[in-house]
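Quick one, tokens below:
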């Protein structure tokens, strides 16, 4: 099978994470989003990139969170880690798919973004279409991702940043303040820290490509370089993109599902470029679809690794001629379809959208906690042999900072933003129940593996 190049690897990582969908949620927090983006990069993005780079080059034979955690704590904890990664995507899919559907509506009629039947139809067509594409294997998926990333992620993102920059340079009315006193949030107000959830959610997925380590050209060299470049691209584009929304749309008017097109429509009408209103949503949909490719394939491949170790029935271990976990992908598509339909027909999409964002982020952060603990347990790799080597002292510091970032964000995740009208205790209970329900099935996987092992003896 043809190997994935360095350029393709960077695009695979960036396209999976650098989603223009996340920008409206971050823009809700106005001037303080600058502080939170930089703070989140320091306590989360950079530590995750460093440890992922080390693991990807250290375990160049078998990659991904399952093998990394398994090497430190055994296969049961490895299964917990890959389950957290996979179940997080189950919770996350309704948000990204509803964003794609809401944006696509602008290609025909913006009013369709509020039509639940249209949203449901678009969601099913997009997800099942992507599932079928992924059955062709990583090489085909990576090629499609390259095209989608260039034209559907980078082009609209840079255009949005350019429009925001022009708006500021022309001296137009700005909805946020850039005074020093406004840039720093009030640390005494918990609601100001809730923005950390939205911004950390923007950085999730740096380790995803690690599961494809065997499919990459010279992984020991290319993975660390790709992760470093990807981190820089992510920080700059997301920060400037969020600011472009915050400077023109008042905080209380920002919509989460179609906030991007809300902003583009405003810019394009103001600058007399209405002819692009049908082009931009098409590009954004293309980029978002491409970004989902790695999210569909990587966690499913991780579950396939768990199945090969006896934690799932042999039925799920089936691979097609392209080496893809065909049955896991199809079962996944059925569950996601049902979950998305439930999401679309809830009374308050905005509130449920934020709830799912917070819940999926918390589940993923538990996985990252296991990753950092695994790095501490395994200790430093031997220097040489092409392994990426974090400078002495910085490795432990990165792990502890990353653990602090995960813990802080998990705690903050129990607090709803002021824009979502729901009581604190009710919201916190739902988050706690959501985490519990999502993690409980791991016990069944452990039990199945134990009984299977006893039968083989």
């Amino acid at each position: 099978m043809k190997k994935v190049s360095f350029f393709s690897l960077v695009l695979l990582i960036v396209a999976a994470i650098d989603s223009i969908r996340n920008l409206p949620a971050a823009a809700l927090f106005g001037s303080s989003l600058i502080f939170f983006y930089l703070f989140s990069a320091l306590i989360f993005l950079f530590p995750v990139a460093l440890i992922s780079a080390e693991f990807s080059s250290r375990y160049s034979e078998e990659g991904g969170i399952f093998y990394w955690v398994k090497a430190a704590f055994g296969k049961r904890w490895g299964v917990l880690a890959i389950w957290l990664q996979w179940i997080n995507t189950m919770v996350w899919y309704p948000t990204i798919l509803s964003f794609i559907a809401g944006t696509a509506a602008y290609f025909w009629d913006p009013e369709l973004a509020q039509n639940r039947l249209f949203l449901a139809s678009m969601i099913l067509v997009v997800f099942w279409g992507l599932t079928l594409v992924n059955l062709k294997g990583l090489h085909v998926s990576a090629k499609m991702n390259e095209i989608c990333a260039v034209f559907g992620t980078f082009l609209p993102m840079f255009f949005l940043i350019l429009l925001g920059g022009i708006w500021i340079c022309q001296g137009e009315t700005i909805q946020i303040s850039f005074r020093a006193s406004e840039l720093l949030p009030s640390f005494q107000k918990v609601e100001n820290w809730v923005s950390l959830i939205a911004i950390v959610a923007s950085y999730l997925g740096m380790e995803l490509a690690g599961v494809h380590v065997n499919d990459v050209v010279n992984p020991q060299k290319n993975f660390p370089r790709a992760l470093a470049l990807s981190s820089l691209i992510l920080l700059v584009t997301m920060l400037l993109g969020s600011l472009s929304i915050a400077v023109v749309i008042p905080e209380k008017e920002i919509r989460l599902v179609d906030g991007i097109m809300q902003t583009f429509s405003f810019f394009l009408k103001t600058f007399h470029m209405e002819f692009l209103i049908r082009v931009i949503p098409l590009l954004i949909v293309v980029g978002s679809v491409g970004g989902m490719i790695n999210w569909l394939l990587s966690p499913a491949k991780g579950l396939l690794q768990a199945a090969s170790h006896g934690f799932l029935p042999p039925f799920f271990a089936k691979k097609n001629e392209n080496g893809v976990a065909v049955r896991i992908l199809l079962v996944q598509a059925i569950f996601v379809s049902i979950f998305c339909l439930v999401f679309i027909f809830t009374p308050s999409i905005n509130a449920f959208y934020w709830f799912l964002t917070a819940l999926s982020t918390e589940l993923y952060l538990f996985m990252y906690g296991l990753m950092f603990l695994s790095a501490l347990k395994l200790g430093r790799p031997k220097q040489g042999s092409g392994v990426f080597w974090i400078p002495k002292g910085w490795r432990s510091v990165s792990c502890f900072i990353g653990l602090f970032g995960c813990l802080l964000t998990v705690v903050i995740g129990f607090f709803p933003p002021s824009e979502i009208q729901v009581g604190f205790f009710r919201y916190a209970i739902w988050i706690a129940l959501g985490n519990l329900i999502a993690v409980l099935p791991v016990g069944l996987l452990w039990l199945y593996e134990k009984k299977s092992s006893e039968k083989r003896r």
